[in-house]
């Protein structure tokens, strides 16, 4: 009787253990490494559904249980991972919770080089060496703002080259030819586009601002743009500080109140919309503009009209 009871107990214990072992075991003998991408804003359920449908795991509940032992939250970070179907469920979970080989980063338009470097350093946990490499290799204005999926083992130089290569791809041959037809060099276009990026309230007013900047340049006027002053006086404490009256006298080649023409370099990385605005500016008689508190642009042909707009929309 005791022997029979022991056999029953053994069966009750062994069968679940065998089943659990089956659920955890690899789904295939193939060790081929396969790239698995977790998209930005993708839900955990969606990731687990794909892991099941693609044949990496057998049960979501088992994955979640193992994941909770590996990391308290069990949350999978968006990015790219190298998986194989010969991994156990524990191996899949451990890889997805600890070892992305690529990470997502969003670089918005209008960032200066130092801001891009700061965001990359934070995302990829750079040391000072990598940060210095990036700053040395990066060209102001040419770090294309975009959503990137980048290797975590890139050097600072590799990262700069990747962003610049994307800029060269987006700044396509048609735009370059249309600029050339107007006798506008690419570097000139990027400088103006960077000014437009920082001065505009949105894509809808970029062509108008481009037209006004061209009007000032063609007439030999000083541009007198606050964005250039901000670039000159910005620091890690605040890269784009509010301009005070005293700042208009700052000794800098980027002070467009004291120096005519374009700045020595771009002041930020512009979007493709800002570059297109340079190539296809709005036709306007305006030489002055301002944005009201709702970011609506108002332009004026004369300085007297501009002063009226200041009283009307800003005071």
Describe the structure.
This protein has 315 residues and is an alpha+beta fold. It folds into 3 domains: 23-100, Dna Ligase, domain 1 (2-Layer Sandwich); 103-170; 173-284, no CATH class. 49% of the residues lie in helices and 9% in strands. It has 13 helices and 6 strands. A 4-stranded antiparallel beta sheet has the order 1-2-3-4, with helices on one face. Helix 8 packs parallel to helix 12 and helix 9 (186-199) crosses helix 12 (272-279). The radius of gyration is 28 Å and the shape is elongated.
What attributes does this structure have?
315 residues, alpha+beta, Dna Ligase, domain 1, four-stranded antiparallel beta sheet, two-stranded antiparallel ribbon, 13 helices
Annotate the secondary structure layout.
Elements: H1 2-24, E1 34-38, H2 44-53, H3 60-70, E2 79-83, H4 89-98, E3 102-106, H5 113-124, H6 128-137, E4 147-151, H7 156-170, H8 173-181, H9 186-199, H10 206-219, H11 226-233, H12 272-279, E5 288-291, E6 297-300, H13 303-313
Antiparallel strand pairs: 1-2, 2-3, 3-4, 5-6
Strand adjacency order, main sheet: 1-2-3-4
| Helicity level | 40-55%
Structural class call reads alpha+beta
**How far apart lie the N and C ends?**
97 Å
Tally of contiguous helical segments: 13
Name the overall outline. elongated
Can you give the mean pLDDT? 91
Low-confidence stretches: none
Number of strands: 6
